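Appendix B. Chain record.
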Amino acid sequence: MNAQLIQELEDLIRPMAEALGLDLWGLDFATGGNSSILRVYVDTEDGVTIDECARLSRDVSVALDVEDIISTRYTLEVSSPGLDRKFFDPAQMVPYIGQNVSVALIEALDGRKGYSGKLVAVEAQTITIEDGEGTVTCNWDEIKKANLRYAFPVPGTKGKKG
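Structure tokens predicted for this chain:
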């Protein structure tokens, strides 16, 4: 993914999202074959409605047509980050300390490229996860992908998560 392109897209989209009362959570731009997909994730404290996503999608589509930032064919998708939200920055993880996350690393650490467990700390550009084998601390630049692992309530346990 081209960091400069992502920054240009963020600079274009962020003010449009904020004008609608939405926070830009992050962007994914995936290329493959003859077309690409631009995924725009937005959120608010109360969640995001389909109508809000549709409105931002229309605004972004027009702006991208005018600015012509993306030179290839692409599909635009606008949505909330969802329950298993992808993290684009370690600061986004701070409110989720104590919850389960999964992390895929670029290079193996202690013979493993993937870790899942409880997020126990976030400091500047590092995160610490506690899994069944102990704790591991990863630098953000070593992480390929990090997601929240939402635990659905177990049926018959009155809202307790399993």
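Further analysis of this model is presented in Appendix C.
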